Protein backbone atom coordinates (compact mmCIF):
# COMPACT_ATOMS: atom_id res chain seq x y z
CA UNK A 1 0.00 0.00 0.00
CA UNK A 2 1.72 3.24 -1.07
CA UNK A 3 1.67 6.21 1.24
CA UNK A 4 0.82 9.36 -0.75
CA UNK A 5 0.64 13.01 0.23
CA UNK A 6 -1.60 15.14 -1.98
CA UNK A 7 -0.52 18.79 -1.64
CA UNK A 8 -3.09 21.40 -2.68
CA UNK A 9 -2.94 25.19 -2.80
CA UNK A 10 -5.63 26.95 -0.71
CA UNK A 11 -7.99 27.65 -3.60
CA UNK A 12 -11.37 25.93 -3.79
CA UNK A 13 -11.16 25.44 -7.56
CA UNK A 14 -7.92 23.46 -7.04
CA UNK A 15 -8.51 21.85 -3.66
CA UNK A 16 -11.89 20.32 -4.53
CA UNK A 17 -10.70 18.28 -7.56
CA UNK A 18 -7.50 17.33 -5.74
CA UNK A 19 -9.56 16.03 -2.83
CA UNK A 20 -11.62 13.99 -5.31
CA UNK A 21 -8.38 12.48 -6.60
CA UNK A 22 -7.26 11.81 -3.01
CA UNK A 23 -10.49 9.93 -2.40
CA UNK A 24 -10.07 7.87 -5.58
CA UNK A 25 -6.51 6.94 -4.58
CA UNK A 26 -7.73 5.86 -1.14
CA UNK A 27 -10.46 3.68 -2.66
CA UNK A 28 -7.77 1.87 -4.62
CA UNK A 29 -5.80 0.96 -1.52
CA UNK A 30 -3.43 3.84 -0.97
CA UNK A 31 -2.81 5.53 2.37
CA UNK A 32 -3.52 9.15 1.51
CA UNK A 33 -2.85 12.40 3.36
CA UNK A 34 -4.43 15.60 2.03
CA UNK A 35 -2.23 18.62 2.76
CA UNK A 36 -3.81 22.05 2.50
CA UNK A 37 -4.63 25.17 4.52
CA UNK A 38 -6.72 24.54 7.68
CA UNK A 39 -9.87 26.01 6.10
CA UNK A 40 -9.99 22.99 3.75
CA UNK A 41 -9.94 20.23 6.38
CA UNK A 42 -13.58 19.38 5.57
CA UNK A 43 -12.52 18.26 2.08
CA UNK A 44 -10.22 15.64 3.59
CA UNK A 45 -13.03 14.38 5.82
CA UNK A 46 -15.36 14.13 2.83
CA UNK A 47 -12.67 12.25 0.90
CA UNK A 48 -12.10 9.88 3.80
CA UNK A 49 -8.38 10.65 4.03
CA UNK A 50 -6.06 12.05 6.68
CA UNK A 51 -5.59 15.81 6.83
CA UNK A 52 -2.30 17.70 7.10
CA UNK A 53 -2.52 21.45 7.78
CA UNK A 54 -0.08 23.01 5.32
CA UNK A 55 -0.19 26.52 3.85
CA UNK A 56 1.94 26.92 0.73
CA UNK A 57 0.97 30.43 -0.40
CA UNK A 58 -0.15 33.62 1.30
CA UNK A 59 -3.32 34.22 -0.71
CA UNK A 60 -6.39 32.00 -0.63
CA UNK A 61 -9.92 31.43 -1.88
CA UNK A 62 -12.24 29.27 0.17
CA UNK A 63 -15.17 29.45 -2.26
CA UNK A 64 -16.00 33.08 -3.00
CA UNK A 65 -12.80 35.08 -3.39
CA UNK A 66 -14.24 38.42 -2.31
CA UNK A 67 -15.44 37.05 1.04
CA UNK A 68 -12.36 34.98 1.87
CA UNK A 69 -10.50 36.26 4.95
CA UNK A 70 -7.04 37.27 3.76
CA UNK A 71 -4.46 40.03 4.02
CA UNK A 72 -5.36 43.54 2.89
CA UNK A 73 -2.66 43.44 0.21
CA UNK A 74 -4.16 40.28 -1.30
CA UNK A 75 -7.64 41.83 -1.27
CA UNK A 76 -6.27 44.91 -3.04
CA UNK A 77 -4.63 42.76 -5.71
CA UNK A 78 -7.89 40.88 -6.19
CA UNK A 79 -9.69 44.18 -6.76
CA UNK A 80 -6.99 45.22 -9.25
CA UNK A 81 -7.40 41.92 -11.07
CA UNK A 82 -11.17 42.32 -11.37
CA UNK A 83 -10.72 45.86 -12.68
CA UNK A 84 -8.25 44.56 -15.26
CA UNK A 85 -10.83 42.11 -16.62
CA UNK A 86 -12.92 45.13 -17.63
CA UNK A 87 -10.03 46.34 -19.81
CA UNK A 88 -9.87 43.14 -21.83
CA UNK A 89 -7.99 39.89 -22.26
CA UNK A 90 -4.43 41.09 -22.79
CA UNK A 91 -4.60 43.69 -20.02
CA UNK A 92 -5.89 41.02 -17.62
CA UNK A 93 -3.14 38.56 -18.50
CA UNK A 94 -0.47 41.26 -18.20
CA UNK A 95 -1.84 42.23 -14.77
CA UNK A 96 -1.79 38.60 -13.67
CA UNK A 97 1.81 38.27 -14.88
CA UNK A 98 2.83 41.26 -12.77
CA UNK A 99 1.02 39.83 -9.75
CA UNK A 100 2.92 36.55 -10.06
CA UNK A 101 6.14 38.39 -9.30
CA UNK A 102 4.81 39.02 -5.79
CA UNK A 103 3.33 35.64 -4.92
CA UNK A 104 4.68 32.82 -7.08
CA UNK A 105 7.75 32.27 -4.90
CA UNK A 106 6.78 34.27 -1.81
CA UNK A 107 8.32 32.00 0.85
CA UNK A 108 10.40 29.21 -0.70
CA UNK A 109 12.37 28.63 2.50
CA UNK A 110 9.22 28.22 4.57
CA UNK A 111 7.60 25.86 2.06
CA UNK A 112 10.80 23.83 1.80
CA UNK A 113 11.10 23.54 5.59
CA UNK A 114 7.45 22.54 5.98
CA UNK A 115 7.69 19.83 3.33
CA UNK A 116 10.99 18.56 4.70
CA UNK A 117 9.25 18.12 8.08
CA UNK A 118 6.37 16.28 6.41
CA UNK A 119 8.78 14.08 4.49
CA UNK A 120 10.80 13.19 7.58
CA UNK A 121 7.71 12.45 9.67
CA UNK A 122 5.56 10.50 7.18
CA UNK A 123 8.14 9.15 4.71
CA UNK A 124 5.57 9.02 1.89
CA UNK A 125 6.33 6.89 -1.14
CA UNK A 126 5.41 9.83 -3.35
CA UNK A 127 3.48 13.07 -3.57
CA UNK A 128 0.87 14.58 -5.85
CA UNK A 129 1.48 18.29 -6.49
CA UNK A 130 -0.63 20.91 -8.26
CA UNK A 131 1.26 22.13 -11.34
CA UNK A 132 0.63 25.74 -10.29
CA UNK A 133 2.16 25.19 -6.82
CA UNK A 134 5.63 25.99 -8.08
CA UNK A 135 7.12 26.53 -4.63
CA UNK A 136 5.98 23.03 -3.62
CA UNK A 137 7.38 21.48 -6.78
CA UNK A 138 10.67 23.31 -6.26
CA UNK A 139 10.87 22.13 -2.64
CA UNK A 140 10.25 18.49 -3.57
CA UNK A 141 12.74 18.77 -6.41
CA UNK A 142 15.38 19.99 -3.96
CA UNK A 143 14.47 17.30 -1.43
CA UNK A 144 14.77 14.60 -4.08
CA UNK A 145 11.27 13.39 -3.20
CA UNK A 146 9.34 11.63 -5.97
CA UNK A 147 6.10 13.26 -7.04
CA UNK A 148 3.42 13.21 -9.70
CA UNK A 149 2.05 16.43 -11.15
CA UNK A 150 -1.67 17.21 -11.18
CA UNK A 151 -2.64 19.73 -13.87
CA UNK A 152 -5.88 21.40 -12.72
CA UNK A 153 -6.68 23.51 -15.77
CA UNK A 154 -5.66 23.68 -19.39
CA UNK A 155 -2.98 21.13 -20.36
CA UNK A 156 -0.69 23.90 -21.61
CA UNK A 157 0.00 24.78 -17.98
CA UNK A 158 2.62 22.06 -18.57
CA UNK A 159 4.84 23.90 -21.05
CA UNK A 160 5.26 22.12 -24.37
CA UNK A 161 8.61 23.63 -25.35
CA UNK A 162 10.89 26.68 -25.40
CA UNK A 163 8.41 28.79 -27.39
CA UNK A 164 5.61 28.27 -24.87
CA UNK A 165 5.25 30.76 -22.02
CA UNK A 166 3.13 30.48 -18.91
CA UNK A 167 0.27 32.97 -19.12
CA UNK A 168 0.13 33.12 -22.93
CA UNK A 169 -2.75 31.12 -24.50
CA UNK A 170 -1.64 28.53 -27.02
CA UNK A 171 -4.56 29.72 -29.18
CA UNK A 172 -7.37 32.26 -28.89
CA UNK A 173 -11.11 32.00 -29.51
CA UNK A 174 -12.18 33.92 -32.59
CA UNK A 175 -14.08 36.58 -30.62
CA UNK A 176 -11.07 37.52 -28.47
CA UNK A 177 -8.09 37.18 -30.77
CA UNK A 178 -5.76 40.13 -29.96
CA UNK A 179 -4.02 42.32 -32.49
CA UNK A 180 -0.32 41.56 -33.11
CA UNK A 181 0.96 44.46 -31.00
CA UNK A 182 -1.02 43.38 -27.91
CA UNK A 183 -0.03 39.75 -28.43
CA UNK A 184 3.64 40.77 -28.63
CA UNK A 185 3.32 42.86 -25.46
CA UNK A 186 1.88 39.90 -23.56
CA UNK A 187 4.63 37.56 -24.79
CA UNK A 188 7.28 40.07 -23.73
CA UNK A 189 5.90 40.30 -20.19
CA UNK A 190 5.53 36.51 -19.96
CA UNK A 191 9.07 36.03 -21.28
CA UNK A 192 10.45 38.40 -18.66
CA UNK A 193 8.58 36.45 -15.95
CA UNK A 194 10.05 33.24 -17.32
CA UNK A 195 13.59 34.59 -17.08
CA UNK A 196 13.03 36.16 -13.65
CA UNK A 197 11.55 33.07 -12.02
CA UNK A 198 14.00 30.70 -13.64
CA UNK A 199 16.79 32.73 -12.06
CA UNK A 200 15.11 32.66 -8.65
CA UNK A 201 14.51 28.91 -8.86
CA UNK A 202 18.09 28.24 -9.91
CA UNK A 203 19.51 30.37 -7.08
CA UNK A 204 17.30 28.66 -4.50
CA UNK A 205 18.17 25.17 -5.76
CA UNK A 206 21.90 25.89 -5.71
CA UNK A 207 21.72 27.24 -2.16
CA UNK A 208 19.47 24.53 -0.82
CA UNK A 209 20.50 21.40 -2.68
CA UNK A 210 23.65 21.94 -4.75
CA UNK A 211 23.84 18.21 -5.46
CA UNK A 212 20.50 18.34 -7.33
CA UNK A 213 20.38 19.63 -10.94
CA UNK A 214 18.96 23.16 -10.96
CA UNK A 215 15.69 23.63 -12.90
CA UNK A 216 16.36 25.03 -16.37
CA UNK A 217 12.99 26.84 -16.54
CA UNK A 218 10.85 27.53 -13.52
CA UNK A 219 7.48 27.20 -15.22
CA UNK A 220 8.55 24.02 -17.00
CA UNK A 221 9.45 22.23 -13.75
CA UNK A 222 7.16 19.24 -13.54
CA UNK A 223 7.25 15.59 -12.53
CA UNK A 224 9.67 13.41 -14.49
CA UNK A 225 7.35 10.47 -13.77
CA UNK A 226 3.69 11.32 -14.43
CA UNK A 227 1.36 14.21 -15.19
CA UNK A 228 -2.34 13.72 -14.57
CA UNK A 229 -4.62 16.12 -16.45
CA UNK A 230 -8.18 16.92 -15.40
CA UNK A 231 -8.96 17.40 -19.08
CA UNK A 232 -9.75 15.37 -22.19
CA UNK A 233 -7.06 14.50 -24.73
CA UNK A 234 -7.62 16.67 -27.80
CA UNK A 235 -5.75 16.08 -31.07
CA UNK A 236 -4.88 19.75 -31.66
CA UNK A 237 -3.23 20.40 -28.29
CA UNK A 238 0.52 21.12 -28.34
CA UNK A 239 2.71 18.05 -27.91
CA UNK A 240 3.52 17.70 -24.20
CA UNK A 241 7.14 17.41 -23.07
CA UNK A 242 8.82 14.02 -23.32
CA UNK A 243 9.70 12.09 -20.20
CA UNK A 244 6.69 11.72 -17.91
CA UNK A 245 3.62 9.65 -18.66
CA UNK A 246 0.80 12.01 -19.69
CA UNK A 247 -2.56 10.82 -18.33
CA UNK A 248 -5.72 12.60 -19.53
CA UNK A 249 -8.51 11.78 -17.08
CA UNK A 250 -11.17 13.90 -18.80
CA UNK A 251 -12.53 15.36 -15.58
CA UNK A 252 -12.03 15.23 -11.82
CA UNK A 253 -15.60 15.38 -10.52
CA UNK A 254 -17.40 13.48 -7.80
CA UNK A 255 -19.99 10.76 -8.50
CA UNK A 256 -23.33 12.30 -9.44
CA UNK A 257 -25.37 13.23 -6.39
CA UNK A 258 -28.74 14.90 -5.85
CA UNK A 259 -28.56 18.67 -5.38
CA UNK A 260 -30.84 18.25 -2.36
CA UNK A 261 -34.51 18.79 -1.72
CA UNK A 262 -34.37 22.60 -1.63
CA UNK A 263 -32.61 22.85 -4.99
CA UNK A 264 -34.88 20.23 -6.55
CA UNK A 265 -37.89 22.35 -5.54
CA UNK A 266 -36.30 25.44 -7.09
CA UNK A 267 -35.53 23.60 -10.31
CA UNK A 268 -39.05 22.13 -10.47
CA UNK A 269 -40.53 25.62 -10.13
CA UNK A 270 -38.36 26.85 -13.00
CA UNK A 271 -39.41 23.91 -15.17
CA UNK A 272 -43.06 24.70 -14.52
CA UNK A 273 -42.58 28.23 -15.90
CA UNK A 274 -39.93 27.80 -18.60
CA UNK A 275 -39.17 25.78 -21.71
CA UNK A 276 -35.49 25.49 -20.77
CA UNK A 277 -33.27 26.19 -17.77
CA UNK A 278 -29.80 27.78 -17.95
CA UNK A 279 -27.15 27.84 -15.24
CA UNK A 280 -24.96 30.97 -15.05
CA UNK A 281 -21.73 30.79 -13.03
CA UNK A 282 -18.38 32.55 -13.34
CA UNK A 283 -16.41 30.64 -10.72
CA UNK A 284 -15.02 31.68 -7.37
CA UNK A 285 -13.30 34.88 -8.53
CA UNK A 286 -15.23 36.29 -11.46
CA UNK A 287 -18.68 36.33 -9.91
CA UNK A 288 -17.49 39.81 -8.95
CA UNK A 289 -18.31 40.83 -12.54
CA UNK A 290 -21.94 41.46 -11.67
CA UNK A 291 -22.24 43.76 -14.70
CA UNK A 292 -21.70 40.77 -16.99
CA UNK A 293 -23.98 38.57 -14.89
CA UNK A 294 -26.75 41.16 -15.20
CA UNK A 295 -26.30 41.38 -18.98
CA UNK A 296 -26.35 37.60 -19.32
CA UNK A 297 -29.53 37.17 -17.29
CA UNK A 298 -31.28 39.97 -19.18
CA UNK A 299 -30.34 38.36 -22.49
CA UNK A 300 -31.48 34.91 -21.41
CA UNK A 301 -34.86 36.30 -20.38
CA UNK A 302 -35.19 37.95 -23.81
CA UNK A 303 -34.33 34.80 -25.77
CA UNK A 304 -36.94 33.03 -27.85
CA UNK A 305 -39.12 30.86 -25.65
CA UNK A 306 -39.38 31.10 -21.88
CA UNK A 307 -36.05 30.56 -20.16
CA UNK A 308 -35.46 29.88 -16.48
CA UNK A 309 -32.15 31.01 -15.02
CA UNK A 310 -30.07 29.90 -12.04
CA UNK A 311 -27.33 32.41 -11.15
CA UNK A 312 -24.34 31.75 -8.87
CA UNK A 313 -23.65 35.36 -7.90
CA UNK A 314 -21.07 35.03 -5.13
CA UNK A 315 -20.68 38.20 -3.09
CA UNK A 316 -22.87 40.05 -5.60
CA UNK A 317 -26.05 38.06 -4.88
CA UNK A 318 -27.69 40.93 -3.01
CA UNK A 319 -26.80 43.40 -5.77
CA UNK A 320 -28.51 41.13 -8.32
CA UNK A 321 -31.53 40.23 -6.20
CA UNK A 322 -33.74 42.60 -8.23
CA UNK A 323 -33.41 40.27 -11.24
CA UNK A 324 -35.41 37.64 -9.41
CA UNK A 325 -37.98 40.25 -8.40
CA UNK A 326 -38.38 41.52 -11.98
CA UNK A 327 -38.62 38.09 -13.59
CA UNK A 328 -40.98 36.52 -11.12
CA UNK A 329 -40.30 32.82 -10.71
CA UNK A 330 -37.99 32.48 -13.72
CA UNK A 331 -34.76 33.54 -12.00
CA UNK A 332 -33.02 32.10 -8.95
CA UNK A 333 -30.10 34.16 -7.60
CA UNK A 334 -27.89 32.55 -4.94
CA UNK A 335 -24.40 33.23 -3.55
CA UNK A 336 -23.34 29.68 -4.45
CA UNK A 337 -24.86 26.84 -6.44
CA UNK A 338 -23.96 23.13 -6.18
CA UNK A 339 -22.82 23.21 -9.79
CA UNK A 340 -21.93 19.57 -10.38
CA UNK A 341 -25.21 18.45 -8.87
CA UNK A 342 -27.38 21.01 -10.71
CA UNK A 343 -25.85 20.53 -14.18
CA UNK A 344 -27.83 17.34 -15.01
CA UNK A 345 -31.04 19.37 -14.54
CA UNK A 346 -30.25 22.25 -16.93
CA UNK A 347 -30.23 22.62 -20.71
CA UNK A 348 -27.23 24.92 -21.08
CA UNK A 349 -24.69 26.83 -19.04
CA UNK A 350 -23.05 30.25 -19.30
CA UNK A 351 -19.58 30.14 -17.74
CA UNK A 352 -16.19 31.83 -17.79
CA UNK A 353 -14.12 29.06 -19.32
CA UNK A 354 -12.75 27.71 -16.05
CA UNK A 355 -11.33 24.21 -16.34
CA UNK A 356 -13.76 22.79 -13.78
CA UNK A 357 -16.84 24.32 -15.41
CA UNK A 358 -15.70 23.17 -18.85
CA UNK A 359 -15.07 19.56 -17.85
CA UNK A 360 -18.18 19.39 -15.65
CA UNK A 361 -20.27 20.49 -18.64
CA UNK A 362 -18.57 17.84 -20.78
CA UNK A 363 -19.32 15.16 -18.24
CA UNK A 364 -22.98 16.23 -18.00
CA UNK A 365 -23.40 16.67 -21.77
CA UNK A 366 -24.41 20.32 -21.34
CA UNK A 367 -23.51 22.86 -24.08
CA UNK A 368 -22.25 26.27 -23.02
CA UNK A 369 -21.88 29.92 -23.84
CA UNK A 370 -18.32 30.72 -22.74
CA UNK A 371 -17.24 34.23 -21.68
CA UNK A 372 -13.51 33.94 -20.85
CA UNK A 373 -11.87 36.68 -18.79
CA UNK A 374 -8.50 35.53 -17.41
CA UNK A 375 -5.82 32.86 -16.91
CA UNK A 376 -6.23 29.73 -19.04
CA UNK A 377 -9.87 30.50 -19.82
CA UNK A 378 -9.07 31.75 -23.32
CA UNK A 379 -7.42 28.43 -24.20
CA UNK A 380 -10.27 26.46 -22.64
CA UNK A 381 -12.81 28.55 -24.55
CA UNK A 382 -10.95 27.94 -27.79
CA UNK A 383 -11.14 24.20 -27.18
CA UNK A 384 -14.89 24.38 -26.47
CA UNK A 385 -15.26 26.28 -29.75
CA UNK A 386 -13.27 23.72 -31.74
CA UNK A 387 -15.06 20.78 -30.11
CA UNK A 388 -18.43 22.24 -31.06
CA UNK A 389 -19.73 22.10 -27.48
CA UNK A 390 -20.01 25.84 -26.96
CA UNK A 391 -20.01 29.34 -28.38
CA UNK A 392 -17.57 32.02 -27.24
CA UNK A 393 -18.22 35.75 -26.85
CA UNK A 394 -16.23 38.65 -25.43
CA UNK A 395 -17.73 39.48 -22.00
CA UNK A 396 -16.74 43.13 -22.34
CA UNK A 397 -19.14 45.05 -24.55
CA UNK A 398 -21.61 42.18 -24.38
CA UNK A 399 -25.25 43.11 -25.04
CA UNK A 400 -28.36 41.22 -23.90
CA UNK A 401 -29.22 40.63 -27.56
CA UNK A 402 -25.87 38.88 -28.08
CA UNK A 403 -26.68 36.47 -25.27
CA UNK A 404 -30.18 35.78 -26.57
CA UNK A 405 -28.83 35.11 -30.07
CA UNK A 406 -26.08 32.82 -28.75
CA UNK A 407 -28.50 30.80 -26.65
CA UNK A 408 -30.79 30.31 -29.63
CA UNK A 409 -27.74 29.29 -31.72
CA UNK A 410 -26.86 26.52 -29.26
CA UNK A 411 -29.06 24.18 -31.25
CA UNK A 412 -29.09 20.49 -32.06
CA UNK A 413 -25.48 20.44 -33.23
CA UNK A 414 -24.12 21.68 -29.88
CA UNK A 415 -26.38 19.31 -27.95
CA UNK A 416 -25.29 16.41 -30.15
CA UNK A 417 -21.59 17.23 -29.77
CA UNK A 418 -21.99 17.65 -26.01
CA UNK A 419 -23.66 14.24 -25.78
CA UNK A 420 -20.79 12.77 -27.80
CA UNK A 421 -18.17 14.21 -25.47
CA UNK A 422 -20.13 13.08 -22.41
CA UNK A 423 -19.74 9.54 -23.72
CA UNK A 424 -16.06 10.13 -24.47
CA UNK A 425 -15.18 11.21 -20.93
CA UNK A 426 -17.57 8.87 -19.09
CA UNK A 427 -15.07 6.01 -19.16
CA UNK A 428 -12.39 8.08 -17.45
CA UNK A 429 -12.53 10.49 -14.54
CA UNK A 430 -10.97 10.29 -11.05
CA UNK A 431 -11.13 6.51 -10.74
CA UNK A 432 -9.36 5.97 -14.04
CA UNK A 433 -6.83 8.69 -13.20
CA UNK A 434 -6.07 7.26 -9.75
CA UNK A 435 -5.59 3.74 -11.09
CA UNK A 436 -3.28 4.84 -13.89
CA UNK A 437 -1.33 7.06 -11.52
CA UNK A 438 -0.80 4.19 -9.09
CA UNK A 439 0.37 1.96 -11.94
CA UNK A 440 2.79 4.47 -13.42
CA UNK A 441 4.21 5.67 -10.11
CA UNK A 442 4.47 2.09 -8.86
CA UNK A 443 6.55 1.20 -11.94
CA UNK A 444 8.74 4.31 -11.80
CA UNK A 445 9.22 5.00 -8.10
CA UNK A 446 10.81 2.48 -5.74
CA UNK A 447 9.59 2.41 -2.13
CA UNK A 448 11.41 4.91 0.03
Automatic annotation (TrEMBL):
Ranges of residues in domain Erythromycin biosynthesis protein CIII-like C-terminal: 302-415
One example of a Gene Ontology biological process annotation: antibiotic biosynthetic process
SUPFAM superfamilies: UDP-Glycosyltransferase/glycogen phosphorylase
Coiled coil regions, renumbered to chain: none
Keywords linked to the UniProt accession: Transferase
Pfam family, one: EryCIII-like_C
TM segment ranges: none
One term of GO molecular function: UDP-glycosyltransferase activity
Gene3D superfamilies per record: Glycogen Phosphorylase B
Signal sequence bounds: none
Name listed for the protein in its UniProt record: UDP-glucuronosyl/UDP-glucosyltransferase
Organism (species): Streptomyces longwoodensis
Amino acid sequence: MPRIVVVSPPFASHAVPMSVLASALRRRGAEVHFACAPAFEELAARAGVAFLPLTVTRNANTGVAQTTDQAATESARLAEFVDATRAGAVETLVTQAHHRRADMLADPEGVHAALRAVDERLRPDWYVVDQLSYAVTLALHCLGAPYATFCPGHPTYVLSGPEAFFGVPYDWPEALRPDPADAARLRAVAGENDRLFSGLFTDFARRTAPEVPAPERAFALTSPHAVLYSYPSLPWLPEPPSGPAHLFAGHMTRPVESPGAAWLRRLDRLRDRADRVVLVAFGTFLSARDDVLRTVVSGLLDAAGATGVVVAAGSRAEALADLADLAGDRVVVAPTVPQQEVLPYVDAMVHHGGGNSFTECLRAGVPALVLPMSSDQFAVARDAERMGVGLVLDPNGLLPADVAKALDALGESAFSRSAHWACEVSGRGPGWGAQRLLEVMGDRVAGR
